[in-house]
Amino acid sequence: MTDLLAGNVHAAFMVPGNVQQFAKEGKLKLLASSGTKRFASTPEVPTLIELGYKDFEATSWIGFLTTAGTPRPIIDRYHREIVKILNSPEITRRLHEMEFEVVATTPEQFGSWIKSEIPRWGEVIKATGAKAD
């Protein structure tokens, strides 16, 4: 964020909560969203899909993971408690303000989604030659 504001980098993918205040102050210009829909707080900002990049979807996510072999009752308890926290009025309000979309599926659905993302992003890494730095 610091380098973007200073002009050391000219563009970046950022989560909405980190940039919207700077956009409101005129310090940044929002070009497009990388999700499948526009954000409620910036309905004038199109998605990359709307701009013609038909398969472009890249979303930030936060998940709760544990080690392989964790007993199922512990996984179930973590899941229940985390969903309860995410659905609490205060947390829901705060996440909504930051434009986070809460997707509290089952552990199996989350695992399947992660498994589907690995080959998808693997192709991007291979095609671009991206390297960890």
Question: What would the keywords be for this entry?
Answer:
mainly alpha; 45% helix; D-Maltodextrin-Binding Protein, domain 2
Describe this structure as you would to a colleague:
It is a single chain. The chain is mostly helical and 133 residues long. The protein folds into 2 domains: 1-59, D-Maltodextrin-Binding Protein, domain 2, CATH 3.40.190.10; 61-133, no CATH class. Helix content is 45%, strand content 0%. The chain is built from 5 helices and no strands. It has helices spanning 2-6, 16-24, 72-86, 89-97, 107-128. The longest helix has 22 residues, at 107-128. The mean pLDDT is 91.
Tell me the helix content. 40-55%
Distance between the termini: 18 Å
Tell me the major beta sheet: none
Please indicate the count of domains.
2
Instruction: Provide the residue-averaged pLDDT.
Output: 91
Shape field: globular
Short description:
This protein has 133 residues and is an all-alpha fold. The chain folds into 2 domains: 1-59, Periplasmic binding protein-like II (D-Maltodextrin-Binding Protein, domain 2, 3-Layer(aba) Sandwich); 61-133, no CATH class. The protein is built from 5 helices and no strands.
